[in-house]
TrEMBL record:
Entry keyword annotation includes Coiled coil: no
Gene3D superfamilies: N-(1-d-carboxylethyl)-l-norvaline Dehydrogenase, domain 2, NAD(P)-binding Rossmann-like Domain
Family: Belongs to the NAD-dependent glycerol-3-phosphate dehydrogenase family.
Domain (Glycerol-3-phosphate dehydrogenase NAD-dependent C-terminal): residue spans on this chain: 275-425
Catalyzed reactions per annotation: sn-glycerol 3-phosphate + NAD(+) = dihydroxyacetone phosphate + NADH + H(+)
Native species: Penstemon davidsonii
E.C. designation(s): 1.1.1.8
Keywords in alphabetical order: NAD, Oxidoreductase
Domain Glycerol-3-phosphate dehydrogenase NAD-dependent N-terminal: 147-249
Record protein name field: Glycerol-3-phosphate dehydrogenase [NAD(+)]
Length: 463
């Protein structure tokens, strides 16, 4: 990769308003000019990964800009030939027949009969096949717009201008290492927007955290300034159903102003932020603590008081951890706090914790659940625990006045690790951790983080 698209940053990209169809075309034209696209050169956008959020994100772009076929191409890649089980096919048939607009669309496209045959058990449907008709396997109850689906990864990405990473963090590295092979001859550098929430821990030669944008940077060689992260308080199905939501796109000044405006919709407000590290780390941490939130909800019969106590302690641990990773992290407020709140309130990780604590799921079933996808909080718990347990990262305990591993100041993280990874304890241990009489006021942990020099630049590979 020998070059990059060079553009001037202009502050008119400061999150404009969308009012009508003509406004959308003008906004598309403005973004194309920003990227230096000629009139006969398509803007090519591809989503990589067909999970719930990745599919919804691509569908939002398709709904907004898909009509302008001579100016933009929006496609999504997912692996081929993943079979849809009969129970899911039966449920999908019910969803189709409950929505007259969807039913009419399928009949008009001559696509309805295959769903009848699958309902009767006479045909096997595949995830890539139904995604073309607007059905995401992890979100069957929320039909999307028809999608242009590609199952050949090379075909999907080789000349894409914008690549949207909708993969789980646990799959990001592997897929982007393959993508690198297809980009060897590229002259221009693509822009990559990562939606992934999770981290990896690397312990040798020294402990450090690897975020999804860093995984992509390592795997492809694309400069970090061309890799951005988008996150926010959102539930995929609700956003597609036009519930009001907001998000932040985080990364280099060079791209984020323009992307924030391009992605913004009346019901989906996108702001920009420069603090890539804190937002990505928080994106991984919220999934960690969402599992515990689901457990607390199940074990206390949805006690508002117990859930609020848990919220106070888990957010103080999140603040403490971010102070290890950034010298002046973005405060847990506004969209960052809202993102944490909605994930603890509703989402697949909270659902998973609830199902484990209520005995409706077994840990032996793993962290990839049919109809839900990958529960990313499980791998994030393991990564954060292993990372923060390293003796080389020891910090001085302000009260005990002795060096301890950072994880010793994160009792909820420790407990979740023992419940889900080593299985030393049952789900009830999460309540025992909250009710420990020796547990300090959460404010104490926040003050410790804010007043002591805990920042460890080496955790992000910095000198």
């Amino acid at each position: 990769m020998v070059g990059s698209i060079e553009v001037a940053i202009s502050k008119p990209y400061s999150n404009g308003n969308i009012s009508n169809h003509n406004g959308l075309e003008e906004k598309l034209d403005e973004f194309r000019r920003f990227l230096g696209k000629s009139n006969d050169d398509l803007l090519k956008i591809v989503g990589v990964g067909g999970g719930a959020w990745g599919s919804v994100f691509a569908a939002l772009l398709q709904d907004n800009y898909g009509a302008f076929r001579d100016k933009v191409q929006i496609r999504i890649w997912r692996r081929p030939r993943r079979a849809v089980d009969k129970a899911t096919a039966e449920h999908l048939f019910e969803v189709i027949n409950s929505r007259e607009d969807v039913l009419r669309r399928l009949i008009r496209r001559c696509a309805y009969l295959k769903y009848v045959e699958a309902r009767l058990g006479d045909r096997t449907l595949y995830a890539d096949e139904i995604l073309k008709d607007g059905f995401c396997l992890n979100m069957i109850d929320t039909p999307l717009c028809p999608m242009k689906v590609v199952t050949n990864l090379q075909e999907a990405v080789w000349d894409a201008d914008i690549v949207i990473n909708g993969l789980p963090s646990t799959e990001t590295r592997e897929v982007f290492e393959e993508i690198r092979k297809y980009w060897k001859e590229r002259i221009t550098t693509p822009i990559i927007i990562s939606l992934a929430k999770g981290i990896e821990a690397e312990l040798d030669p020294s402990p450090r955290i690897i975020t999804p944008t860093q995984m992509i940077n390592r795997a492809t060689g694309v400069p970090i300034e061309n890799i951005l992260y988008l996150g926010g308080p959102n539930i995929a199905s609700e956003i597609y159903n036009k519930e009001y939501a907001n998000a932040r796109i985080c990364g280099a000044d060079k791209w984020r102003f323009a992307l924030a405006k391009f992605l913004r919709q009346p019901h989906f407000i996108v702001w920009d932020n420069s603090d890539l590290v804190t937002h990505e780390v928080m994106g991984g941490l919220k999934n960690v603590y969402a599992i515990g939130a689901g457990m607390v909800a199940a074990l206390t019969n949805e006690s508002a008081t117990s859930k609020s106590v848990y919220f106070a302690h888990c957010t103080s641990e999140m603040i403490f951890i971010t102070h290890l990773l950034a010298e002046e992290p973005e405060k847990l407020a506004g969209p960052l706090l809202a993102d944490t709140y909605v994930t603890l309130l509703k989402g697949r990780n909270a659902w998973y914790g609830h199902m484990i604590a209520s005995g409706k799921l077994s840990l032996d079933m793993g962290s990839s659940i049919s109809g839900k996808g990958t529960i990313q909080g499980v791998s994030a718990i393991e990564a954060f625990y292993e990372l923060l347990s390293q003796a080389s990262l020891n910090i001085l305990h302000p009260e005990a006045n002795k060096p301890v591993a950072p994880v010793e100041l994160c009792p909820i993280l420790k407990t979740l690790y023992k419940i889900l990874l080593t299985r030393e304890q049952g789900a009830e241990a999460i309540l025992e951790a909250l009710r420990d009489e020796n547990l300090n006021d959460p404010r104490d942990r926040i003050e410790i983080a804010q007043t002591h020099a805990f920042y460890k630049p080496s955790l992000l590979g910095q000198p």
